[in-house]
Amino acid sequence: MEHHQLAIFFLGLLFPAIVTSVGINYGQIANNLPTPEHVVPLVKQIGATRVKLYDADPKVLKAFANTGVEFIVGLGNEYLSKMTNQANALAWVKQNVQCYLPATKIVSIAVGNEVLTFNDTSLSGCLLPAMQSVHTALVNLKLDNKITVTTAHSVAILQNSYPPSSGTFRPDLKNCISPILDFLSKTCSPFLINAYPFFAYKANPKQVPIEFVLFQPNAGIVDPVSKLHYDNMLFAQIDAVYAALSTLGYSKLPVQISETGWPSKGDDDEVGASTENAKKYNGNLLKIVSQKKGTPARPNNDLNIFVFAMFNENLKPGPTSERNYGLFKPDGTPVYGLGFSGVSVSSGNSTSSGNGNGNGNGNGNGPSVYLSPPANSSSGYLAISSSTERLIWSSWTRLSMGLILMSMGLPYLLG
């Protein structure tokens, strides 16, 4: 207990308290994480007021009761087909959301993750019906005025992203996206996007200036259409999403960055994955969020950003970077210095099951609608370096060319 209190004391002294609007992604694909009770003070002390889960883990939701921290709970891709049935959706909401209210402040349900870029028509066909069923359940329980229903997308849903003012959605996804946008607009729900400038830099390290992706001083770019100046890629990505939404008639739909981050370690071919770059990206990002400024195209809009992720997760598959996005190590100490202490908050007394799906606790207390996931389950959430990464690279190669030509004083023509 003394060590735990000492850690909180140091964190409180050293972390900038002005960061009050940032969110954090709390994934649990690991077998060595601290208990949710130990995570509560960590979340508080880094200034996060919002937490995004990839499931509805009862241990986490109970641990954060009466803390005031807002939660987005998740419904994994593997459950979308079940959630198209309204009875299943109602049962899920009752047993995974309603029973924790009002003590735990659940404000949104994210149905699926990056479904539209999964290239699975059967899966994408279930997305909107599942969202509608969950919303209907909230209406029936008189919770729809307190809890929104949405879904997170990859930036790979964009066909054009440079210049930002010319952002458009992929034509092959328009028939899926438009009804979802209509649903979000009618239910006053936010549009969630997962954005990782790391991938653009990794794909073109010789063309994309590292300063531009790490929020460091640089000449930046000027959008030739809007004449707005951009000094970082994340803002360019966000405004490209706003432009794409406007093109379809949804300019007033609020946008939240449901995931963004930078790995502190990677394989030899993962250029830019380093402790120093992760420190710069997340440190500068937190400073920008604390300034409460919007993007060049939306200067008065709040930056609703969820950093990925709370912890390094040792059981995530894929390249080394997948297991090294965390701000914290499993023992609760920071992976790198962002102004908070390196004093441990726990002794590795983890109860995490590491499966990351369903309720994520493996204790059999989940709802009956959570049957065993299919063999190709996404295990709670997709690997960041999934097949959609190639689409992200392709999209931002256009930005790379723009940076090169603009630095030479040459015009960049849209294709």
Please explain how this structure is put together.
The chain has 415 residues and is of the alpha/beta class. It has a single domain (2-407), classed as Alpha-Beta Barrel (TIM Barrel). Helix content is 33%, strand content 12%. It is built from twelve helices and twelve strands. The protein has helices at residues 2-14, 36-45, 58-63, 80-83, 86-96, 121-140, 174-186, 197-203, 210-213, 233-247, 275-290, 389-407, and strands spanning 23-25, 50-52, 70-75, 105-113, 148-154, 158-160, 168-169, 191-194, 221-222, 229-230, 255-260, 305-307. An eight-stranded parallel β-barrel has the order 1-2-3-4-5-8-11-12. It has a two-stranded antiparallel sheet with strand order 6-7. Helix 6 links the parallel strand 4 (105-113) and strand 5. It is globular, with a radius of gyration of 20 Å. 50% of the residues are buried.
